[in-house]
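Quick one:
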Amino acid sequence: MTEVNYLSKSKKSPRQYREDLFTAISVGFFLLLVGILFIINPDLFGSVVDFFKDFKLVDVPNTNIMLPAPQSPQLHLTIYQAARQLSIALGVFQVVILALRFVFPSSWGKRSETVGSFVYWVGASFLIQYFLVESTQWFAFWSTIIILAGVSIIARAVVMAATRI
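Output:
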């Protein structure tokens, strides 16, 4: 009798099975993407090491606060460009996942989560380009990333609210 209960409890619903597939695809894509970034940016590993070696406590502009940051942020364009490439690819991937969530129906909660992720990754690619690649404003970048996280949560909420109307 316990064997029958064990078997019946281990069965997943079709929706849970689909979500597990979406998770596996997402993790696999992320690992593939990181590998590709290291291939197309051959000096990326050394750049990452140099980036973290450059961290020191620095003054946050217009405050009396010191936080860890690269002492010379303008020297790490390779890292910023790789992060932008990652953000763009993840933003495009969110579009693919959203389409799959309509083809293989997912809950509106998962669809709205994907929309929020899309907003975040596309926004992050813009912010990386503007605040790190073009003008190297380290702390301004992190402030706007926090704002972007809020915007992506609001985008998710808008989709959820629209489905309830």
